[in-house]
Amino acid sequence: MPTVILDPPSKNKTEEKQTAAAAGDDDDEDHVTSAIRKTGCFKFHEKLQDCYIEKKDWRQCSTEMQDFRRYTDRERIVPGSTEHIKSGLEWARIKPDEPAVIQSERVELYRKHLVTLFGKLNHQNQPHIYRCFCTIDRLMLLRHECKRRSQPYRYDGRCKELSEKQQHEYIQQGLPHVIRFSLPTDDKGIQIYDDLVYGHHEHNPYATEGDFILLKSDGFPTYHLANVVDDHLMEISHVFRGHEWQTSTSKHLLLYKAFNWQPPRYGHLPLLERERGRKLSKRDAENAHNPIEIDYYRQKGYFPNAVLNFIILCGGGGFKDDDTVIGKTLDEMVSLFDIKLFSRHAAIVDFKKLAVCQRAHFKREYQTSKEGRQKIIEELRQNVLHYFPEKNSTSSMQLQNDYLEKILTMIDFRIVLLDELFTNNLYEYLWKDPELKKDLIHDVQQFKFVIKYTLDNLNQIHFTHDDIKQFIENYRPNKINNKEVFRIWRLVLCGCLQGPPVHEIASFFGPDIICKRFKHALVVLDQQNENFPV
Ligand SMILES: [Zn+2]
User: Fold this and answer.
1) What is the total count of domains within the chain?
2) Rounded to the nearest whole angstrom, what is the distance from the C-alpha of residue 173 to the centroid of ligand 1?
3) How far is ligand 1, taken at its centre, from the CA of residue 375, in Å?
4) What is the distance in A from the centroid of ligand 1 to the CA of 56?
5) Phi and psi of 466, rounded to 5°?
6) Among 208, 214, 418, 439, which one is least packed by beta carbons within 10 Å?
7) Is the distance from CB of 46 to CB of 269 less than 8 angstroms?
8) Whether 198 and 71 share a structural domain
9) What is the mean pLDDT of the chain?
């Protein structure tokens, strides 16, 4: 028996807008659409917990594809959304154990199950479900009235009283309608269950809201109906989803009762927050620096396992500490996961941890897997061609495996993404001769002296790290101190003052390039002599 995990799109606070044919523009619509269209990282969060549970011998996992737009009558199916979710899961190497359930292809199935409830009564002798013909105008008035009285909005259940004859007439007239679930109004409406994360939970949905919609006027189910029918048919045993769904769970339990089905067990996971007290939102999804869509990280070149580590570290728990997660593969995380360590605290998304996870996997892939190493080198080569397309036509040294490997060894995982070697000015010297910045030259004569001395004595160096280091340390022309000599070497070779140790850079380049750059620096200094203070 499988477990479902993929989170439904965010809940819409104005569910009544689904009513009738008049569903108009909705503030939340874009948010919902984008949540469905894009595979958000944080939907993966729950998917991951599911993988652990599966391996910890509970069940398999499966995927529901909520691929339709739920809050508007226009453009229901979002093209490509299913493929998008699938490819995101594939990239992250999360394999559902059975074919995905495509909800938009099951609309008839949901309707078929729903109509079995017609004519059935609950313990209060009320129908389990009923047709509601209220227009959007009436619902708006109702909403305003509730607001005026400072009461929470609740549908007043007027259509529950419609006779069969009236309903028949309205249908004949072609009036649009939705189907609502009739909530028990007494204590039996209180739903008590043992949340797998939060423990004892009880809630009476009637106390806070009115009869909710199961089927919209366009015949599409709401999440409440679709998830209950799907989970039942797929024999789902455990459901983990975001904490915001906890109050809806009581509605789902009532629906299971009406169908006379056995409900799954539920666990709700703490919400992820961008900062304390503010949950991740549409604004975060659009944040250019750290968007919450998985695609962004895939395209940027993050390792799938690094992203998975990061998502786990964002919260929810299940692990002893951060070090139990960082640098681990999905399978390793699965074996280290402990359901007893689930956390109830809202978690802060800390993007600094993503860099730590990425570095850990960068190192791991490069150092321990031949295949991983080759892949990284090839990716670096593709980057060279991307940033310097002209090199494609030459047998450039900078495209050779040796050179690329030497770069990666020297950089020693100081970078997070390969891209930085091209976009960060600090690494420009790897690809082209550096520019000598005059404002970094304290004393031109001294600078020139060191260059000349170096050129005259280059043949004495054997170009191992230690040899170069010793060479620079030992010569004290004109009593110039070592620090200044190292600084001059760095400026001539790199054009900047940060980076790996000078002797490493020097041994990386070797005598030919060192000679070339020192000579070039001398020419530049001579040419621009008049511009430099002497
Ligand atoms: Zn109504």
Assistant:
1) 4
2) 16
3) 61
4) 47
5) -65, -35
6) 439
7) yes
8) yes
9) 79
Give the Å distances, CA to CA, from 59 to 72, 153, 198, 236, 264: 35, 40, 21, 9, 12
* Segment among 231-240, 245-254, 338-347, 523-532 with least mean pLDDT: 523-532
Q: Are 133 and 164 in contact (CB under 8 A)?
A: no
Q: Is residue 319 domain-shared with residue 212, that is, in the same domain? A: no
Q: How many CB atoms lie within 10 A of CB 464?
A: 11
Q: How far is the CA of 434 from the centre of ligand 1 (A)?
A: 74
In a domain, 175, yes or no: yes
pLDDT recorded at residue 278: 61
**How far is ligand 1, taken at its centre, from the CA of residue 136, in Å?**
10
In the chain, % of residues over pLDDT 90: 36
CA-based R_g, the chain, Å = 32
Ligand 1: centre distance to CA 121 (Å): 19
Q: What is the DSSP letter of 532?
A: S
- Expressed in angstroms and rounded, the spacing between residue 22 Cα and the centre of ligand 1 is 14
| 326 and 399 fall within a common domain | no
Centre of ligand 1 from the C-alpha of residue 228, in Å: 23
User: Tell me, what DSSP letter sits at residue 265?
Assistant: E
We report the CATH number of the domain holding residue 73 as 3.90.800.10
In three-state secondary structure terms, 262 is coil
Measured distance CA(506)–CA(509) in Å, rounded: 5
DSSP result, 69-138: --S-SSS-B-TTHHHHHHHHHHHTT---SSPPEEGGG-HHHHHHHHHTTTT-B-TTS-BSEEEE---HHH
Q: How far is the CA of 126 from the centre of ligand 1 (A)?
A: 15
Using the structure block, give the residue that is written with the tokens 């976009």.
423
Element (H, E) at 76: none
Between the CA of 134 and the centroid of ligand 1 the distance, in Å, is: 4
Distance 164 CA to ligand 1 centre (A): 14
Cα 160 to ligand 1 centroid, rounded to whole Å = 7
pTM recorded for the entire structure: 0.70
* φ, ψ (nearest 5 deg) of residue 87: -70, -30
Identify which of 22, 39, 510, 7 has the alpha carbon closest to the alpha carbon of residue 299: 39
Which range of residues forms the domain containing residue 329? 287-363
Q: Do 446 and 524 share a domain, yes or no? A: yes
For 225-279, write each residue's pLDDT tens digit.
998 998 899 888 888 888 888 989 999 999 999 999 999 988 888 877 766 566 6
Q: Which two tokens stand for residue 31?
A: 């948010």
pLDDT of 21 > 70? The answer is: no
Specify the DSSP class assigned to residue 220.
P
Distance 75 CA to ligand 1 centre (A): 25
